[in-house]
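Researcher: I'm comparing several assemblies side by side, and this is the next one on my list. It has 842 residues spread over two chains. Same procedure as the others: predict the full complex and return the structure.
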Amino acid sequence: MHFEAFSSSELAAYLRGIPAVNARLGDDSELQVVEVGDGNLNYVYFVSSARDPRRSVVVKQAPPFLRLVGEAWPLPRERIEREVAALRRFGALCPQHVPSVYHADSEKYLIVMQRLASHRVLRQGLTEGIVYPHLADHISTFLARTLFHGSDLYLSPEAKKAAASGGINTELCKITEDLVFTYPFEDHASNVYSPALPAVAIERLRTHEPLRRAAGEMKWAFMNHAETLVHGDLHTGSIMANEHETYVIDPEFAFYGPMGFDTGAFIANLLLAYYPRDWHDRMAGREPLAFQRWLLEQVEAVWNGFAQKFAQLWRMHEREAGRAWIGGPAEARAAEAFREEFMRRLLADTLGFAGCKMIRRIVGMAKVAEITSIKDEAVRARVEVRCLRLAEALLVQRRELASVEAVTALAAQVLAQTVDV
Amino acid sequence: MHFEAFSSSELAAYLRGIPAVNARLGDDSELQVVEVGDGNLNYVYFVSSARDPRRSVVVKQAPPFLRLVGEAWPLPRERIEREVAALRRFGALCPQHVPSVYHADSEKYLIVMQRLASHRVLRQGLTEGIVYPHLADHISTFLARTLFHGSDLYLSPEAKKAAASGGINTELCKITEDLVFTYPFEDHASNVYSPALPAVAIERLRTHEPLRRAAGEMKWAFMNHAETLVHGDLHTGSIMANEHETYVIDPEFAFYGPMGFDTGAFIANLLLAYYPRDWHDRMAGREPLAFQRWLLEQVEAVWNGFAQKFAQLWRMHEREAGRAWIGGPAEARAAEAFREEFMRRLLADTLGFAGCKMIRRIVGMAKVAEITSIKDEAVRARVEVRCLRLAEALLVQRRELASVEAVTALAAQVLAQTVDV
């Protein structure tokens, strides 16, 4: 395991040796290299033509250790290969929402890909109250296309099993198993509780049986249900967007897992943005209800859009193949009955995973900026208690919540509840 | 792919070259070789010392094609390797119920293993009305030990994922996907209907929505839920038994799949033996109710024994490891609540798979001798309709049937119903 970070001139020289990159940047000018990574995990560079800055690429170098700490905290060396493979697979299925990969070099732990120059990380945009008119449409398309085409509903059993075997991502799954499904529900050293979060709310995560049982079931599903190639970390920090376009990035956690893990991650992060929303708007002197309402509408739109597009791909495929999931020239009614039940079960999975993802962001190590940026400790704790209440309800009632509208109604109801901190 | 069947003298000479086999047979005598396979699929030989016939082994040769047809019907060449790997794994976990492997040679598609000289295929014994006093105890032990130790409840995530990847068995799983979960529910050329089976009963398998939906869900679970290394074909023809001992054989279908597929297969085959039972007893001039009652008692005993032993292994492991499924020093009540829910879900899976296994044995290609041996076509059809009725109820009501006693009560109720054929 040898890793060396590039200097700017070394990186420029390296990129000059790659025809596919020269084709993007032109070979008629110096290259400008600017490091833009946050410094925790990866090295990220913008590289552009000095003559025409619109010609640019992004270079991501993912060393086999935690950059912040160094080689003493090793990370799996395959993570860059996982990310490249997933970017290529998702890109083939959904090119309009996945950055193009121009070059990958796993010996140098490096990817050169499309620069999203006019796009921002979605979480930042949502924190600032920006409305993305196409977000739900784009993300539901991404979810429907990627989740459907990796599954047994589309692939032959041979292709699916080969893909599932190739999609095992042990080390990064272990991080999720621990940080999402295990530590938040115990008294673990990695948990971080905000100062005013009531002890009773923390205690409840450890002892409330229906919640523990449901979380245990979601962990089992995460570890055992190899349904499709999921992104594996589809929060609003893994999405870059502007008013017109939406891109999904950073699929290093991709593995063959349950479909609901991706749909749940996205919806969880909309809901995590929902409860702190009015505080942000009041701070900014804005009307506090409109954006909150918009967020809940996105929860509905992304699920309903996904469900409609997924079922449509499925029906179209069955029509073309001339057979339904349970064999034979499709008896349309039985095939539809199975499809309806499948989507209901997938909504239940989605809600269960969303609940776990919300809980880990409140009591686990990794937080969301929408909530940590609230300086008033009591306000923040009230937001956190609401997130935990909704998360618990999503987990425990996931099979009873028959529609996404029931979910948003519940979310609004929790917002209206009194919280004592 | 080259395969050559041995002559008796060639096989004897081959075995003489293997020290582990000589150690079993002695080297002081000629070897007697008798072919005993049924001729459809494999070559099976008993090989014994001419001087001391108690010193013997069984040799199974599994050519990479269907023996009955020849090389024109290829079978996966890996099936003998799958079988050897599963025999060794199950044998390590449960040596008292798995034949010892003395030698394996995948180039010759061959296994030399323990001869079960005083044991008979369980299906034959059950057809003759033989009571096996330890059967349920032994099979529940086999099920609990094998299903538990291959799962995430016992293995580390790393070991589990490596085992699951190594346990992919695409071609043989495809046979099950088609013959158990797909063809029986459509108008497929491979189906075989007995002459007096009413058309309405066949039609119902294709059109009754709740049944089709449930069967579709079981197919999804079979193809996606990689919970543990299952035997994959655990019917009463894959078990050899006598009054004292029980051995599980022929695990060539072994793969990482849902636990309930094995428990369901065994229970399905007890129930398939149940409905034709009184006819066999009346033919043999025996009291027709006692053995029927015994069969239902075995259904209860094998599930309850399994559930108790599985939970016991799990508790013991958590005690030793000092942590429960959802982390932390086990809060005993939450861990027990999850365990109870897990076993309830596993019973539902068991019943769903049992339903599919029963249906495929009635309308699919492969039958069970207990039913095909009924010469009276109307009697046979009445038995078959009862099997289909119970199978449907198991599938559709699998989550409502809260105990195995509810299942046996339902089975008895279906026996008492009138059937018009």
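Model: For your comparison table: Residues 290-321 of chain A form the longest helix (32 residues).
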